[in-house]
Structures are given as C-alpha cells and as structure tokens.
Write a structure and sequence with these properties.
Layout: H1 9-12, E1 16-19, H2 25-35, E2 40-43, H3 52-61, E3 65-68, H4 76-84, E4 91-94, H5 109-137, E5 140-145, H6 149-152, H7 158-178, E6 183-190, H8 196-199, H9 203-210, H10 221-232, E7 243-246
Parallel strand pairs: 1-2, 1-4, 2-3, 4-5, 5-6, 6-7
Helix pairs in contact: 2-3, 2-10, 4-5, 5-7
Amino acid sequence: MQPDDFDNGARRGVPTCLVTGAGSGIGRAVALAFASRHARVIVNDLPSCTTLDALRDEIETIGGACTIATGDVSDPGRVREIFADIERLDVLVNNAGFLQESEITGLTDAMWDRMIRVHLYGAFYFAREAARVMKRERHGAIVSVASDIGQIGCENLSHYSAAKGGIIALTKSLARELAPYHVRVNAVAPGGVLTPMVDALGDAYVTEESARYPMKRLGTPDEIANVVRFLASDAASFMTGQIVGVNGGGVMNG
C-alpha cells in the first residue's frame, strides 16, 4: 500500500492513521503495516505502556512518522484531548482491549464494567471523535477489531463476548450512518491470535485453542494487520458495514 492506496490518498497526501492499543500484538502490527507505506501513525496505549518509544523508533526507521498519544480509551475526557490535536484523520483502528476468563458465577460487577468500558466504550469514544473529523472532511475509514467470539460466544468469556458483540453491532450502525459522508466503517473478527495477551494464558490454552480451528493453528498479528490495512485502503472502497472473519475457518460466513 502506497499513500494513494488510502481513500482519496493521492489528493490528500500522506495519510494519518490512529491505532489504539498499539503497544503490542495486533495493534503494534497494524501500526507497522501502515508505517511501512510511509503513513503518519498516531499510536495509543495506556500511560504505563513501556513499548511505545521503541515502536516509534521502529516506525521512523522504516520511513513512517509517529506521534505517541497515551491514555485510557475508556476515559472520554482523555479521548477528547487526543483529538484536540488532530486536524485530519484518514483511518481510525479501534484495537485496544484485553482478555480475561471467568465463570459467570465468579464474574464481578467490576470485571464486567472494565471489560465493556475498554472494548465497547473505548470504540465508541474514539469513533465519535473520529466521526466529527471525518464527516467534516467527507472522507475516512474506521476499522474495529472485534472477535469470532463476538459472533459465536464462548464459555467463561461472557463479558468479552458481549463486548465484542457490541463492537460488531456498533460497526454496522455507524456504517449506515456515516456512508453519506463517504466514511466507511468495517470490522475484522479474528480467531485466536498469538499475541502476548494469549501467550500469557499458557501453552495448554494455546494448544486447546488451536484445535478449535479447521486450520489447526492460531493466527499471527501480521495476518490480522494485513486485513485491517486492506479495509482502510481504496482496494476496499465498496465495503462498509462488513465483519471480516480472519479466523482459520472457525466461523464460515456466506
């Protein structure tokens, strides 16, 4: 992807892309995928994230430009502050999230609330501010990272499933609302991906999770990032409101 592969990129010059949860895993791979085509990338993660400086250095090494914008995605005030410095935005990638297992009987109010706030409220807060910019510019693409679990559910992950299912519904609603402004809204629904978040659950979990998929393996962050980059590009110019499964055959649509 060159800069002119983005929606109206040739007319607008170097594209600007904002990626939440960019410190590791899928978010990091997405940021690098955009930067590899010389985009300006705004990377977001929690203030406690220790990897953003190294990511910025790597982005600049491969020819991209990078701005760090730390903050909790579930804090609407901080999200507004981040967007106060953004005059133009070509792509928003809602990726921030975390994984946590719990039986429903052990799922506390605080656990439920934090899961929904990070995934669903975070996507909402960033999409709301991005929409203000993109509607004004009559241009842009929003891509959110959902999950196959948001489509099929999963035991011991009811709060995660609900959050990702909410992102899927939000994606479809925003796609209809923003289409008249030439803003496309899509989501990827990955299956299991070998990220640090998944690795932390242990080898037994990875082996068990891999067996769920017809391809008998988990995906890589780069495999997800490639689809995100496609959805943000002119190659996907007639796609909006789509939930694209990148899941090794775990969910087969059509």
